[in-house]
Amino acid sequence: MDLSSQQALPVTPQQAWDALNDIELLRRSIPGCESITATGEDSFDVLVAAAIGPVKAKFKGKLRLLDVVAPTSYTMQFDGQGGAAGFGKGTAKVSLSPIAEGGTMLDYAVHAQVGGKIAQVGSRLVDMAAQKMAGEFFENFRKVLEEKYPPAVEAVEAAPPAAAPAAVAAPGFFARLWAALRRLFGGGN
């Protein structure tokens, strides 16, 4: 199975790199991820519950980061075992580059092999499940990025309007109100 795509991220390349190397942030972003545990420098154990077509299983896996060129790229090597459901193993090349309008472009290319019951489901279902998981990952990843790095533009737009115009309008309102009350109740000067 081969899968590649690009995703625009609303953060700087350094922030994207930091997020991609933040275990807790990744755990919250990976669909079905129950745990990620560092086992050494650039090595991790991962536990993920996944469904591929009718096959559902918990996959225990090993993940290693290779060819690390901080903060622009690395290759992930993964090997996951799902018991009777089968296995998945392969590599994913990830690279980050700045976007002219601001933000970061994340490019990835995955090459994976599956076996066992997963392989029996058919390559089309496996490809669809992989695309769905990638879509859910990036949707979750964007949300946690926006929580961690709120956009400065939105903060400016959300600022309340200045109080000065309201203070200028207030005397006119009260003067009209007072005049209406005098007319209504027949009050004099």
Q: State the low-pLDDT regions, or none.
A: 153-159, 162-171
- Integer tally of domains: 1
Largest sheet, in brief, is:
7 strands, antiparallel
Helicity level: 25-40%
Can you tell me the CATH topology?
Answer: Alpha-D-Glucose-1,6-Bisphosphate, Chain A, domain 4
Shape: globular
Look at the helices and sheets and give the structural class.
Answer: alpha+beta
Order of strands, main sheet, comes to: 1-7-6-5-4-3-2
Overall pLDDT, averaged?
A: 84
* Sequence of secondary-structure elements: EHHEEEEEEHHHH
Tell me the span between the first and last alpha carbons. 88 Å
Q: What is the tally of beta strands? A: 7
Give the strand content.
35-45%
* Gyration radius over CA: 27 Å
So, the CATH homologous superfamily? START domain
Q: What is the tally of helical segments?
A: 6
CATH architecture: 2-Layer Sandwich
CATH class wording? Alpha Beta
Quickly list its features:
189 residues, 40% helix, alpha+beta, Alpha-D-Glucose-1,6-Bisphosphate, Chain A, domain 4, seven-stranded antiparallel β-sheet, globular, 7 strands
Question: Can you characterise this structure?
Answer:
It is built from six helices and seven strands; from the N terminus they run βααββββββαααα. It has a seven-stranded antiparallel sheet with strand order 1-7-6-5-4-3-2.
Short structural summary:
With 189 residues, the chain is of the alpha+beta class. It is built from 6 helices and 7 strands.
List the helices and strands and how they pair.
Elements: E1 2-9, H1 13-20, H2 23-29, E2 33-40, E3 43-52, E4 55-69, E5 73-81, E6 87-98, E7 104-115, H3 117-121, H4 123-148, H5 152-158, H6 164-185
Antiparallel strand pairs: 1-7, 2-3, 3-4, 4-5, 5-6, 6-7
